[in-house]
Amino acid sequence: MKAVEIRDFWWRYPSRREWTLKGIDLNVQEREILGIIGPSSAGKTTLCLCISGVAFRITRGEHKGVLKVFGLEVPSTSITELSQHVSLVLQDPDVQFVTMRVFDEVAFALENSGLPRDEILERVREALEFTGMMEYANKPPHELSGGQKQRVALAAAIARRPSLLIVDEATSDLDPVGKREVFEVVERLRDAYRLTAIIVDHNSDDLTKFADRIIVLNEGKVAREGDPRSVFSKVEELTPFGIRIPQVAMLLAKAGFVDGAIPLTVDEALKVLRPLEHRIAVSESLDNGAEVRLPSAQFVDTWYEYEDGTIAIRGLNLKIMEGDFMAVVGPNGSGKTTMAKLLTGLLKPSRGIVLVEGLDTRNTSPSKLATIVGYVFQNPDHQLVCDTVREEVSLPLKFLRLNSEEIEKRVEWVLEAVGLKGLEDEAPYFLSKGERQRLALATVLVVKPRLLIVDEPTTGQDERGSRRVMDVLTELNKTGVTVVIITHDMRLVCEYAKRVAVLNRGQLIAEGPPKTVFSKHLDDLDKIGLDAPPLAKIMSKLAGRPAFTLNEVIIHR
Amino acid sequence: MSKSKVKTFLAYLDSSNPLLRLHPFVKVLALLVFNLVAWLVEAPYPLLAYLLALVFLYPFLRVSMRNLIRALPYLLLVAQAVTLGYLVGSKIPGSVVYFSLPWGTYVSDRTLMFMASVMLRISCMVLGSTLVFISLRDVDLVYGFKSVGLPFAAAFTVNLSMRFSMLFMEDYARIRDAMVLKGAHLDSGGLVERARLTSLMGVPLMVLALKRMQDLSYVLELRGFPPKGKRTYVYEFVWRPVDAIAAAILLILLFSTVALRLTGFLSFPGWPFL
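The joint structure predicted for all components is written out below.
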């Protein structure tokens, strides 16, 4: 039976001239897991909103063609009726929370549907266990970390046991193992309750292992469609779309496997590549140029406890060196953002000391530290306050009382650096999410901070957008700026960071150059929910040491 | 290191706090009674006694006095507005007139007394409501209103408006942090400059609030709200003797206030003034 039937479907938002979706033809069978990938602005979220019926309800855009979910004509069916079959999980979990307790959040829809109390309790327990959120059942959802919030939103969706689950980039903030666990839960629900799932994700490394079928959406059209092995066997054809291609597929392409059903998991790749083992090596590259200098910032036996009693940082001792490019990684709720806020002076340590260029943050105001430390928030919307892009970028310079010539010079430089040149007179809130993220980065860069902290710089960005942001940060780092990024994206960590600090439950469990950390602590990382990128894993087994980029892999012909 | 804590609308309470175990009906009743009593009492000395009683309730109910201090800036703001209003715009006769203004208003000894009463009344309302909201979770509000006969959809809407005002405050705090990290001096400098910087924050606040409102409408629909048929309630609040005692005390307080007010005991001395 068809769960979703889409025939020559077109969609246009009321304010746009261009159609966002252009003649989509797509069928999703019952119990199928469909993965959707594509660059930013390809129409992925619009497609999800249309299938769930939300697009017709909130935007009243123009549409043509056929769109049915379990036989119901979506445009003419109420959301309430569709919601009996469909659960939609959005990327931003904050907008989805309607209660003050994780338990209540998961139970809310079940209570509304009038299920017996015992069944509600059973389903809530099961959903919280599936998503690893049982120990947070009494916490307020809006006070959890980004990844934990996404887990709660997913728990609330799966507790309803919908016939169709739509997950729109709702795993972007999850740690690697958390993401894998969510996909495993979807698989289990498919088997147990005949679930059909549509999952949108930029990270194809994980998605390809679980999806039965992948579609590549580009400029509102289905550009590629098929089972993951065949779609990703043509790496060169996919590169122009600017999507993230699984590392295994890229490695296999480099090794000469260009057609047919290619392997997509580490184990499968190892089987295929074992016969070539003697011809594969990893180049002697340095660890992204790690150098030892003076400490820019330092945590000395630092502790931080939140008002609700959560101890987010426990006895942290860490030095961030001048000119360093440090990645702070850790599972959801490990204290990464708290650590960053301690550096900015927004939070003061409950115990211990945080020093920034020798200044004790306990006695220094955040606005004074702002001349040294720049902090880019996860959500750009909290950082944008002006009517135009130019005013937005100029504002921090006006606080510094710089002359207009200097302000003009810096604004030109920073907009060029982040790729927003030409948008000076646009209103920040009408920019795309990726552009807003880069604008938020620009408002911090323009001050030329000596220590720059960026919280999840690439969340929700496609491969092209991610690379652009990371390249900007790399260029800055080359000029001597110390960069600290907080991320779950291990591929970026491996490719860009000079050093990695691994946090777990507020404690530092490993620290050092990425190659050292990923070689010596592979098992520790696995245990706490972090996963080395597939390429690093494969090359560790084949060549005895990890490779972080394809350029490091040498295949002798 | 720490006891487990429960998040309420205004604070974190130790999970062992007796206020958390009170029946939601009692909490909603307390909210009503604390405010009604403050509204009914006009005489300054009884109001002062009521205020002191409310302050005493904080330590008695194991609620941190820090929460009282949090309310002080708002009270000071209200006090300034009330003072200004009575100093420039009242005509309450008294035994002594301290000064008159060209537009016909004047300030007498009774003006000052009445002004003090109004401030005391507002303080009582703020302190009483704060005390209730410190112990109030969203489920209390929904179940409390439901127990007095309000339909679930209406009770939940009241709860949502409370919750969203909290989120609004949290957004404000985040945007303020972002401004501070851009180098804005929001706690120092001239009043005009601070007002200008604060007004800048209105833009993202409005954008976020509008976005939340739009998203919320369909998020609720997607989750089956309002329920079409019979709704299940997972919480089962049991009416205990302590709830009955608390409700009785509150009702006695309310009815005795009404009775005393009718006898004129709690009226402002000399009212009506003409």
